[in-house]
Write a structure and sequence with these properties.
By secondary structure, this protein is α+β, with helices and mostly antiparallel strands. 36% of the residues lie in helices and 22% in strands. The protein has helices spanning 41-46, 50-67, 91-109, 120-125, 150-159, 206-219, 240-250, 254-270, 279-289, 307-322, 360-366; strands spanning 25-26, 32-38, 75-77, 81-86, 113-119, 131-136, 142-147, 186-187, 192-200, 290-291, 293-295, 299-305, 326-333, 335-341, 351-356.
């Protein structure tokens, strides 16, 4: 790949700086956006399948990363799907990866993963923008953030059926190397795990940016900004359900996944250093790397909040909604979950997407409230 736009984008070191419009840069017209989400994900959640829903959403990012080796591109995990932008040279490979994930989700899980890919120029022709920022969580890892309204428009077009991709044929498997997670769910330590989705009534609104700034200042009063994982890392439990999902993601047999899972559990539980791998350092790094808040044409956060802070947050958002500045949804639950992409446990760029364990962002989106 030869398009260096995203490579050359300077990372932002402070999350609260992302409320400033100048933190974002326009994605070139020549690039492509891809959107994916699971149809009827609410029904799957009601059946207790949200871990599967999360895994399929993260698989979209994993498959495209593996289809574009060595290429930096922005992607955002959304719970029941993902949004991303790729350089023009990566359009064909991205399209094939999306279709393979669609086929895999259909064949193994009976899930209808909707997906589409289209030029950024098409978003702008429809009157919407697409801007991106890189938020650096450490020297080795950064997460993408989107603004401008373009991704929200593309997702709406996808859900309306006006843009779409047909899945690949039966039996086609995406390359999901690195898509694995064996952490137990994260139990609330302060009160409740709160998944909150805050969207602007008008894209590019300075008033919306101001509300987001207020929200971040409020949540920063909680330990580690409401981060749902302890600083030392997530807790461990025997991941019986995760093992089955990891097997589906890897294509390995049950015996191979069992021994791989057992070895990882023993090493992490005992904190025994193995070669160049330091389990305690990796666990702490996992917490630091966790993507528990993001901008994706709005502010999305999964936080561990006490009752007083949750009440204050709800009051703040009720006021902003009444003023016509935001639409928002909140889902509360007892636990959060992680969905992970770990190309190598010996490197510091492993990614961990956080969502509520009882519907999270998907349920929050179903409860959007605004002035209307």
């Amino acid at each position: 790949m030869t398009d260096a736009f995203y490579d050359n984008l300077a990372p932002v070191a402070r999350f609260d700086a992302l409320v400033q419009a100048e933190a974002f840069q326009p994605v070139p017209d020549r690039w492509y956006v891809a959107v994916a989400d699971i149809a009827n994900s609410t029904a799957a959640i009601a059946e207790g399948r949200y871990k599967t829903v999360n895994m399929v959403g993260a698989a979209v990012i994993s498959a495209v990363r593996n289809a574009l080796p060595g290429t930096a591109f922005p992607a955002v995990f959304g719970g029941d799907g993902a949004t991303l932008a790729v350089p023009p040279q990566g359009e064909a490979a991205t399209r094939a990866a999306l279709q393979a994930v669609q086929a895999w989700a259909r064949d193994l899980f009976g899930l209808d993963l909707r997906a589409a890919i289209l030029p950024v120029s098409e978003l702008r022709a429809a009157g919407h923008d697409l801007r991106v920022a890189r938020y650096a969580v450490n020297a080795a890892l950064d997460y993408a953030m989107f603004s401008g309204g373009g991704m929200a428009w593309a997702e709406a077009e996808l859900k309306a059926g006006r843009i779409h991709l047909e899945p690949a044929g039966h039996g086609v498997m995406p390359d999901l190397t690195g898509r694995s997670c064996r952490w137990a769910n994260l139990k609330a330590r302060h009160g409740q795990i709160v998944s909150v989705l805050i969207l602007p009534e008008t894209a590019g609104s300075a008033a919306f940016d101001a509300v987001c700034g207020e929200v971040l200042r409020l949540t920063e009063t909680v330990e580690r900004g409401g981060h749902p994982a302890p600083a030392a890392g997530p807790g461990l439990g025997w991941p019986t359900g995760s093992a089955a999902l990891n097997r589906a993601a890897s294509g390995k047999g049950p015996l191979g996944v069992f021994f791989e899972t057992a070895l990882a559990w023993v090493v992490m539980r005992s904190r025994i250093k193995l070669g160049g791998f330091d389990p305690a350092a990796y666990a702490a790094e996992t917490s630091g790397n966790a993507d528990f808040r993001k901008f994706d044409d709005g502010l999305k956060m999964t936080l561990d909040l006490d009752a007083a802070t949750l009440d204050a947050l709800t009051a703040l958002l009720d006021r902003a909604a009444a003023e016509g500045t935001v639409r928002y949804g909140i889902q509360t639950q007892d636990e959060a979950m992680m969905t992970c992409i770990v190309p190598s446990a010996l490197q510091s760029d492993h990614m961990h997407f956080v969502d509520g364990a009882a519907g999270g962002y998907t349920q929050a989106a179903a409860q959007l409230k605004g002035r209307g």
